[in-house]
Amino acid sequence: xxxxxxxxxxxxxxxxxxxxxxxxxxxxxxxxxxxxxxxxxxxxxxxxxxxxxxxxxxxxxxxxxxxxxxxxxxxxxxxxxxxxxxxxxxxxxxxxxxxxxxxxxxxxxxxxxxxxxxxxxxxxxxxxxxxxxxxxxxxxxxxxxxxxxxxxxxxxxxxxxxxxxxxxxxxxxxxxxxxxxxxxxxxxxxxxxxxxxxxxxxxxxxxxxxxxxxxxxxxxxxxxxxxxxxxxxxxxxxxxxxxxxxxxxxxxxxxxxxxxxxxxxxxxxxxxxxxxxxxxxxxxxxxxxxxxxxxxxxxxxxxxxxxxxx
Length: 310
Known about the structure:
Blueprint: H1 4-14, H2 31-42, E1 46-47, H3 48-51, H4 57-62, E2 65-70, H5 96-107, E3 111-116, H6 127-140, E4 145-149, H7 159-165, E5 170-172, H8 182-185, H9 191-204, E6 209-216, H10 222-234, E7 239-244, H11 261-273, E8 278-281, H12 292-309
Parallel strand pairs: 2-3, 3-4, 4-5, 5-6, 6-7, 7-8
Antiparallel strand pairs: 1-2
Helix pairs in contact: 5-6, 6-7, 7-9
């Protein structure tokens, strides 16, 4: 381990800021975490929990929630905030849907999140693989709730519709930051296109919960966050997540500042006031974060509501 002096020199050299105490978490060492890791490898699956070095990994894996990253571990884009490797992607694995469903069954997952790298190289952006994975999980784990966190599929025709028709419980697509930051943080994506994607999901199937998240600490203003919330509500987005951006490596975008827990609380109140059904706003919130019990209640309420409307 490094001496304090070496650490300070390293921080100066790399521009890393020391994290405030509220962002410190223990490394996951539970038996459950080790087993999960082993099983994912044996089925040739990637978890975004690991790839993105998520701070909540230990807690989620113990609650039997996990996020599996399909379509390989190599992304065709290079966003300034993301730690997934970029390059020429692999062939789509035809066994992935079955392996994902088996992992879900073996772990006894209550809630599974399926995400993916961007696959701009594929005709459908990878949409069909999402459909196959959802079907395989439904088949093998009928009681597990399924949340998907998708890329924008680069506007490939019919991709969103195809995935929404497979009926995931939650369709998440992240706006990531305020529009002003897009050229620098999320090049290759379009803010309004991402909003329209989530609107399309609701048109296809109003029973699907839609969800989106942003990172803060990237130089955004409070008013801009408020505007993003309004835009999300206009697009009928149900759930929102707000978490602190952390710089994964020195070549990624720098943290502008560490937003305080009190400010996160204020954002949470703001979002509740604007009518989001669920909001998770805290320094360590990540976009797959979801309170399982709340979700079950919301799902029951929505099904009832839609039945009544018929």
